[in-house]
């Protein structure tokens, strides 16, 4: 039966819908409202240089807090719903613009320039005019392209390879850099990896978690670091949580690190106050 609670709350709960389907429909509805009413936020997680310990960039991570007082919903849950419903297109555009705007505001305030990395989902990537969107975000915010990095997962790149190459050329033509996110989980062919020529490989957290004790993960991590080095690409490890993981990565020549050991993702104001001194 259909239940109408005014225009914006209109919802259709068919009796056969599973609990899971009802939850997804509810999240989708809440996201539509949040998009209109500013219910999304961006947090920033530091990326740190291994050689000198300095802050060199941030990853922008979207946050969604339901207005009904229920606990926050993880992007792991709402990003796939946004992808399937098409909401990822306006949401992704908002995150991109917000991250560029914030980064430019930090530069205008006199902080040392940082590169901001924005995650790009498969649906956004395939949306046809993605390079125009990036160009417009840079133009409207005034951020220089050198300070924008786009994180695209290995799976997205490899599943849309011809298109990925074309888009990569357009993005690099704009002057932004590109990282391959969750690297090691997406069955790259090495020849494709070479053709795609990303700026950075980002080692997936699953390989970092059991370092340094797990010999397989240690071997894979070292192989990715060597691969990046030989392809003349930078390499960053995500999900670094312990001193021992960091020591391993440092010893084996990883360029950059990111993870709870350094900092969780932080709201913009908190990020500023924590890093103002180092900046
Ligand atoms: P990702 O791009 O691989 O982002 C890294 C995730 O790992 C983030 O989770 C981050 O909070 C978490 N993380 C960082 N350091 C650590 C650590 O030391 N330990 C552990 N256990 N986790 C750590 P988050 O923010 O929940 O995001 C999850 C995924 O959702 C992201 O994975 C990305 O795929 C997607 N996502 C987040 N924001 C956006 C966005 O703005 N656009 C798109 N398209 N996807 C996004
Ligand atoms: Mg990422
Ligand atoms: Mg990642
Ligand atoms: Mg990951």
TrEMBL record:
Boundaries of every EAL domain copy = 24-279
Q: What is the designated name of this protein?
A: EAL domain-containing protein
UniProt source species: Noviherbaspirillum album
Covered residues, full protein: 455 to 733 of 733
């Amino acid at each position: 039966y259909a239940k109408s609670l005014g225009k914006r709350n209109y919802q259709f709960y068919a009796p056969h819908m599973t609990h899971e389907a009802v939850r997804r429909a509810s999240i989708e509805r809440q996201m539509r409202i949040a998009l209109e009413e500013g219910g999304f936020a961006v947090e920033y997680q530091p990326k740190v240089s291994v050689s000198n310990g300095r802050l060199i960039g941030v990853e922008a991570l979207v946050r969604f807090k339901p207005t009904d007082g229920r606990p926050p919903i993880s992007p792991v849950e709402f990003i796939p719903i946004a992808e399937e419903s098409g909401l990822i297109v306006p949401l992704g555009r908002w995150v991109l613009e917000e991250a560029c705007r914030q980064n430019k505001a930090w530069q205008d305030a006199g902080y040392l320039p940082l590169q901001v990395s924005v995650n790009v989902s498969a649906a956004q990537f395939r949306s046809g005019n993605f390079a125009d969107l990036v160009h417009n975000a840079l133009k409207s915010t005034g951020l220089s392209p050198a300070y924008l990095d786009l994180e695209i997962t290995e799976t997205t790149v490899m599943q849309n390879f011809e298109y990925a190459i074309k888009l990569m050329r357009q993005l690099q033509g704009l002057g932004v850099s590109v990282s391959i996110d969750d690297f090691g989980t997406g069955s790259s062919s090495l020849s494709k990896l070479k053709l795609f020529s990303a700026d950075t490989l980002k080692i997936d957290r699953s390989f970092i978690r059991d370092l340094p004790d797990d010999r397989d993960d240690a071997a894979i991590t070292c192989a990715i670091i060597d691969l990046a080095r030989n392809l003349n690409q930078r390499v960053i490890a995500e999900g670094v949580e312990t001193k021992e993981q960091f020591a391993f990565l440092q010893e084996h020549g990883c360029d950059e690190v990111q993870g709870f050991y350094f900092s969780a993702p932080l709201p913009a104001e908190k990020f500023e106050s924590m890093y103002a001194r180092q900046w």
